Amino acid sequence: MTHEDFPTDDPAVVTAGLPYANGDLHIGHLRSYVNADALTRGLRKLGQQAIYVCGSDMHGTPIAVEAEKEGVSPEAFALRHHEQYEETFPQFNVEFDQYGHTHDETNTALTKEFVRSWEDNGYVHEKEINVAYDPEADQWLPDRFVEGTCPYCGEHARGDECDEGCQRHLEPGEIEEPVSTITGNPAEYRKREHKFLRLSALQDHLQGFINRVEGTSNAQNQPLEWIEGELQDLCITRDMDWGIDYPGEGADDLVLYVWVDAPIEYVSTTKQYSERDGDLDWESVWKNGDGEVVHVIGRDIIQHHTVYWPAMLEAADYAEPRAVCAVGFVNIDGKGLSTSKNRAIWAQEYLDEGFHPDLLRYYIATASGFERDVNFSWDRFAERVNSELADVVGNFVYRALLFAARNFGGTPDARVSDEVETEIAQAMDDYEDALNDYDLQSAGQRAVALARFGNEYIQRNEPWKLDDDEAAPVIRDCVQLVKAVAVLLQPFTPEKADAIWSQIGEPDSAAAATIGDCLQAPAGEFGEPEELFTKVEDDRVEELDEKLQSKIEAGSSDEDDEADVSEESATELEPLADERVSFEDFQDLDLRVGEIQTAEGVEGADDLARLEVDIGHEVRQIVAGIKQLHDLDDLPGTRVVIVANLEKAELFGVESNGMILAAGEDADLLTTHGDSEPGTKVK
């Protein structure tokens, strides 16, 4: 592994967090897989050898629980979903070089090799612990077979994770007031011998790793709480039948914890690819470190990939990854995606509506930075498809190629102007910089910006008013711009980029082109183009919104509805404060109108955003807890009301000089009805 800029001489292996084989895919799932796919394609554009590997996560208690409900074996249940994923991913142009699953022979054998290496290297020990037990069912209760109270925050939690509270991973025996999910009865704790990986002995290594690893800031900062604190050893065995059997002695009735064999699948699929294709040596990458391993994951599994996984690799004498990129969640209409309430856009549902997969790929890969949440709504989707893909890219490509085909039969015989050559070269540099920063949003938007320049260029030069000799250099420039747009846009809209490639008469496909082809002369002859994108009309958006709302209402139970009503009522009926303040005290507050200039997330903080706000006299830096409640990219230009004379504070190491006023739990930002200028005092 190097930390040199891409492209490097070593091959890159890009992975995505394994999809858990227990349900249908929705657009929240797709974000990780589309981003990893786009990153892989983008690296190839830079000339980097790169493969994309993944697989279905087949083990663990959730699958065992759901399989039992259906009355089928866990293997049959998981394989059904695995096969569904294999069919679904290609429909969104997500192309894995190797896709396997954790229950196959390769991963089973390699996982056991890992564990034996841990034992040989002295990183495994046995310890007696409390394990929940259901006397009525006469069964041990690992992970999600038990629920109770989180010992850290007091919220309701599953046996392996505080999913409703602090999100902390929970070890066996930690959960308080345990209840069996099998019978619903209180569980009891019984002593049991289990195997542990000595994370505590690897703490120095992990502290060094977190300083070396590249990727997103949340992946670098979130693990510090564990790595710099007292690191607890990881229990690597479970009392259940479904999983990979523990390979050592004294654990004949135990299987390995799902988070042991799941990340090892990254190595297994690389090995399978290596053995099938032969152009990459998996051992050179994973054992010798002669490779660039990049993990793209959801932010809910950062701890597993920046604490457990590098420890597992080091304990088995494997190389560490180069980067961990943790993506944010996908919200629906400003609210968290909820499959239980049907507030979700399912992958198949999107396809059934007749939309091209590249539209969604572009939306979710470029709507925000890697680590920020994406807020999906049908009107936002339509707005970006219409204004960026149809009006900018589609419009430029069509008008430029139509003029070229009708007037010149293809690319005119002329040289590219210095202006256009400079613009394309700058786009290439910006694109390469963005990919080296793992910034897909900027890379994708730079491709669209180049098409926007093309529209401005053709409009400025008006070739339809020129004779052929005068128009030829202009159209030659435009065809070169079209070719460059196709190259740069290909990782995000692979099918549509191939369509452009075909329309300009280029051989092969846009996938085979590298960034250097942006300035290579286009093919000589081509016919009239077809339009690339169809706009999403307003009535179509209304129809889709109605379907979504009807689905959410149908999916909400009476209890959900009552809970929602109660929550709203509690907000509306929050009692007024009894204690009054004087008019003089109120006058002491300096309330001002401000205009947000920039907005970005605070590193390491899930809820905080750093804003730069123009308040007339100066630009203030203000930290506000709105990161999960607003699309930060939409905030610049918004006028808000701030408290300007609040004492300065420091939040997560960032100074906050003021306070943004907002209403309610959804942080509805307070602003003015008219167009008051920044700095206007609120009285």
TrEMBL record:
Q: Which cofactor does it need?
A: Zn(2+)
List positions binding ATP: T339
The organism sits in which domain of life?
Answer: Archaea
Record keyword DNA damage present: no
Every copy of the TRNA-binding domain together lies at 585-683
Q: Major location, coarse class?
A: cytoplasm
Keyword annotations from UniProtKB, A to Z: Aminoacyl-tRNA synthetase, ATP-binding, Cytoplasm, Ligase, Metal-binding, Nucleotide-binding, Protein biosynthesis, RNA-binding, tRNA-binding, Zinc
Location of the protein in the cell: Cytoplasm
Q: What class of enzyme is it?
A: ligase
Q: Specify whether Zinc is a keyword of the entry.
A: yes
Q: Which reaction does it catalyse?
A: tRNA(Met) + L-methionine + ATP = L-methionyl-tRNA(Met) + AMP + diphosphate
Please give the Gene Ontology molecular function terms for this protein: ATP binding; metal ion binding; methionine-tRNA ligase activity; tRNA binding
Q: Which GO terms describe its biological process?
A: methionyl-tRNA aminoacylation
Q: Acidic residues: which segments have biased composition?
A: 556-571
EC number of the protein = 6.1.1.10
**Function statement:** Is required not only for elongation of protein synthesis but also for the initiation of all mRNA translation through initiator tRNA(fMet) aminoacylation.
User: Quaternary form?
Assistant: Homodimer.
> What is this protein identified as?
Methionine--tRNA ligase
Lineage, highest ranks first = Archaea, Methanobacteriati, Methanobacteriota, Stenosarchaea group, Halobacteria
